[in-house]
């Protein structure tokens, strides 16, 4: 059984807690992790890049000079690819980079990412963050007491009524991302140096459906 340090919502240390076995069994499938990260990054691409071919570049309606008698190489258009400001050969054009990934592979990748962070002792469990209003100072103080204020931190909430206040509290911290546990992907977990999970999120993770990748 894998354990993780447990803290209160204000950073007071408690007894270590056992992480749920369905998610934290020590399995790290590198192939699933690679597939999930590549899919996530590909799906973020807009694919709006475009270059003009010789048929799209303006000008070049007539030959630059006559075919013979000038001593120069024959040319048909000043918009040919080898001319300055000419068309581009084999340049990028708008396309869709979106990839699909099986649901079970996505779930395995997320589980592997969590196990990888737990193996590095980078998973911290805290009590429910019931913030009555957004307060960046409160969340920053908690991360400072946990000793991870200078690291990239992923805060995973249970999605309770005050979860939005936690999100707003971490929005101004450049190295902190806050999201629901069920919305986190393998990429976000691997992006972080430390994962802070609300204790209620671990209990509800087995019963809630996982959100699809964006």
Structure commentary:
Helix content is 29%, strand content 14%. With 214 residues, it is of the alpha/beta class. It has a six-stranded mixed beta sheet with strand order 2-1-3-6-4-5. The longest helix is centred in the middle third of the chain and has 17 residues, at 103-119. The model has no long low-confidence stretch (mean pLDDT 92).
Main attributes?
214 residues; alpha/beta; 6-stranded mixed sheet; 29% helix; elongated
Radius of gyration: 27 Å
Largest sheet: 6 strands, mixed
In percent, how much strand structure appears in the residues?
5-15%
- Between the first and last Cα atoms, what is the distance in angstroms? 32 Å
Placed side by side, the strands forming the largest sheet appear as 2-1-3-6-4-5
Query: What is the arithmetic mean of pLDDT?
Result: 92
Order of helices and strands: EEHHEHEHEHEH
- Residue stretches low in confidence (pLDDT < 50, at least 5 long) are none
Strand runs, count = 6
Portion in helices: 25-40%
Assembly category: single chain
Structural class: alpha/beta
- Compute the number of helices: 6
Form type: elongated
